[in-house]
Structure formats: structure tokens, C-alpha cells
Amino acid sequence: MSVKSPFETTSSATATRSVTEATRAVVQEFVTARVAGDTGRLVELFADEVDWMLAENPTVPWIRPRSTAAECAAQFTELMEHTVPEDARASVRTFLVDGTDAVLMGHVAGTVRATGKSFEGPFALHLTVEDGRITRHHLYENSLSIAEACAP
Fold this sequence. Notes:
Blueprint: H1 6-36, H2 39-45, E1 46-54, H3 69-82, E2 89-98, E3 101-111, E4 118-130, E5 133-141, H4 143-150
């Protein structure tokens, strides 16, 4: 029979809480940099290699495979180049953090500059933070609405 010391349990809980707090802080910095359009800070927050997932969509110019910190940060610049900044809206309704993983859920809307068409829908973003940098960025969104807004 194995019995754990309460000190090990407390130590383990403290370590888990510490990792969760560090993840939360990095994700909050990510959101702040994203809202501010601070691509320099975004490059710093993304790891050198990122597990980037966003459903490929050939009709949407800002959606493409990415893997480096610079490519990931550039997605936000490209998004702003192809949409009307004044019409961009995003709200986060849920922010969950457990260890190195964080999930943001909310609603996003905007207008495509080239077509004048609007898109909107829910989103979920799964981020993983390791050693203070984002190593995973998986975004799930209403890709149909975005594709329709990009189509002439």
C-alpha cells in the first residue's frame, strides 16, 4: 500500500497552481497584444515552432498553414489588411486554464474589405503555453461564414 505525504500533495497542488497562473498570464498578454495589434510582442509570445491549426480555407487570404512565431504573429496583420478594422468585433465569454492549456470561447464578427460582406459566429481557441511561450494555437470558428464573406 502506498501512502502519500500531505506535503507532497500540497507541493504538487502548488506546482500545478503555479503552472496554471503562468499560463493564464501569458494568454492574457497574448490577448492584450492581439487587441493592440502588437505583432512584435506576439512574435515574442509564440514559440519558435508552433502547432498551428486553423481549418484551411482557400477563399480566405489570411487563413493558411503557419508554424513559426513570425508567421503566427503575421496572421493578425494579414487579417487586419483584409478586413475593415472598424467593423471587427470579438468577445470572450469563457476563459479556462488548466496547467499548460487554456481555452477561450466567444464570438467574432467582421467585414471583408474586398467584398463588403460581413461574417460572424462563435469561436473556440485552444492555446498551450510551455516555458512562457505559446506552443499550440488551435482555432475553431465559423469558417463557412468567413468563406461566404470572402466570395465575390
